[in-house]
Specification:
Elements: H1 3-6, H2 9-23, E1 29-35, H3 42-52, E2 63-69, E3 74-79, H4 81-84, H5 91-104, H6 108-126, E4 142-143
Parallel strand pairs: 1-2, 1-4
Antiparallel strand pairs: 2-3
């Protein structure tokens, strides 16, 4: 089954809402990409997707991607250079571990929304939104 069909319209709506909420008060950008398969190392797939969807094009290089390969049961969370310079060591791993637990207990959508909020909380600390700043990237979930 295609990833787009595995995620309901209601779940997509919840995730987009979480992204919009998490991006309030920050110039940082959060994207979620869901695919079926990742035929190589998950971090390589995530990095390629990061570039493909233009996450490196933010002014402050403060985008974060939650990458999920459903059929392969793999995920990665990566940030751009700007955010990686300021988040604490192990930050991405901590969020990933929480998300894996939510997948295990059957609460994938809730886990993704929690991960989005955790990323957003760090972005707000390090990249507060200034009045002139705008949303640089779409909030929609992308599918591969």
């Amino acid at each position: 089954m295609s990833p787009r069909k595995e995620i309901t319209a209601e779940q997509r709506k919840e995730m987009v809402s979480a992204i919009r909420e998490a991006e309030q008060g920050t110039s940082g950008e959060i994207r979620v990409h869901i695919t079926g398969r990742c035929k190589e190392k998950v971090l390589d797939c995530a990095a390629r997707t990061f570039a493909h969807i233009g996450m490196h094009k933010t002014v402050l290089r403060n985008g974060a991607l939650i990458y999920i390969a459903l059929q392969d049961k793999q995920l990665a969370i990566i940030g751009d250079a700007g955010i990686n310079r300021v988040v604490p060591a192990g930050f991405w791993d901590g969020i990933k571990e929480q998300l894996v637990e939510r997948f295990r207990d059957g609460s994938a959508c809730e886990g993704i929304c929690e991960a989005i909020r955790s990323v957003g909380a760090q972005l707000k600390v390090h990249f507060p939104r200034e009045e002139k700043e705008k949303n640089e990237l779409p909030d929609e979930i992308s599918f591969g």
